[in-house]
Design a protein that fits this description.
Elements lengths: L2 H14 L18 E3 L4 E3 L1 H14 L1 E7 L3 E4 L3 E14 L2 E16 L2 E11 L4
Organism: Haloarcula onubensis
Protein name: Nuclear transport factor 2 family protein
InterPro entries: NTF2-like_dom_sf, SnoaL-like
Length: 126
């Protein structure tokens, strides 16, 4: 599987309420470098990111993920991407909908592509 397919699988897993923590790399012993910034949080370190994603999966449902402009560059062991994503979900009886911008970095480790950085922000005009 290449980096683009991994990103598409992540989007599909989000849509279907499947676990997302497995898409993120484990920290290497020498660093605490895995980072995920979402619409309302910043998680640092693989353990924090993975727990945050498990909590998100447990507390949300009915995700809509509309990828509008996915761009991926892949090299031997690193890839980076950006996308414009229509994002919506249910949480606590309330529907949340945003136009978002995504960017991230994946690393090829042990035969798989894993996120080492993911940033999701709300797209607004100033």
């Amino acid at each position: 599987m290449d980096a683009r397919a991994t990103i598409h699988d992540y989007y599909d897993s989000l849509r279907h309420g499947a676990p997302l923590d497995t898409f993120f790399a484990d920290d290497r012993p020498e660093d605490d470098a895995v980072v995920k910034c979402g619409v309302s949080e910043r998680l640092v370190g693989a353990d924090s990111v993975k727990q945050g994603l498990r909590d998100q999966t447990a507390s949300t449902s009915d995700w809509a993920v509309d990828s509008r402009d996915l761009r991926v560059t892949q090299r031997d062991t690193v890839a980076w991407f950006s996308d414009d994503v229509g994002l919506a979900w249910d949480e606590g009886g309330q529907r949340h909908e945003f136009d978002t911008r995504w960017s991230g970095t994946l690393e090829h480790r042990a035969g798989d592509w894993s996120f080492v950085g993911l940033h999701v922000s709300v797209a607004t005009d100033l």
